[in-house]
From TrEMBL:
InterPro entries: FkbM_mtfrase, SAM-dependent_MTase, SAM-dependent_MTases_sf. This is Methyltransferase FkbM domain-containing protein. Pfam families: Methyltransf_21 (PF05050). Residues 100-213 form the Methyltransferase FkbM domain. SUPFAM superfamilies: S-adenosyl-L-methionine-dependent methyltransferases (SSF53335).
Amino acid sequence: MDVGCNKGYFSGIALNYLAPGFGNHLQLLYAQHIKSNKSENPCGSCSDCQEPLPRHLPTVGQSSVDVYCYEPSHVLFSGLASARDTVYGLPENPVQGKGTTVRFHLRQKAVSNTTGTALFPTESAGEVGSLGNGSPVNVTTLDVELSEAGMPTYLDVLKIDAEGFDPVVMAGAYHLLRSHRVGLLAFEYHSLWFRSGGKLRLCLDYLEELGYSCYFDGPRLVKLSGCWHHELEIDRCSNVVCAVQGSPYDDTLFKGSFIAQAHGVGVDGMTGDAMEALGRRARL
């Protein structure tokens, strides 16, 4: 599940592992974003579209993958729909012959800790839109969404990029997280968290209480849970990845951490291996 889907590039990275028969999903999506001309920066602010294929890709992907993509911007949603329809087809009629059936579900909603409506810059094509101003949009929570008929009961991967409202989204996923129905959780942490009043330490305490271990993401993961120091509250753009404590995902993340490698018990590139370790049917 991809909350704050924007151009779909995070989902594209995951699909490179799960559905390699398509080729480089980032380039496939980028080509469609160029054609639709719906985005201010079709490649992404971090040049996401230029991300190379991972070194260790499976030769055969999953038999089936469901992606659930949440994006409240009308402009970006329109571009996503155009790219989705061309690359993957509609969920009820997906593209065949690529080795993996990818059902790419789009939801034009904002995700928070409450339901109803809120203001959002729906006509913005940028990457930093957030609740608080603009036009009315529907707002939901992850707990509500996953209680709906037809939605999955378990998420292999949950990514949140809500431009400062990531802690609020996680608060609205309390029951989902408490019941450990998320295998891997990834979210963005940076100075925009002031928009929701969030602090990394408070967020980590919340996730630890729910049974998750978290790391700063990177070539070598930096363990956060149980290793807190006030200097880690850096307020700079970073990615955090978490897994259920004691799970195979948690073990995989630990082996890719700086502390494990410093003691000679880890290996490089474990974030990729964690993706490869997903079950036979993945839901993003």
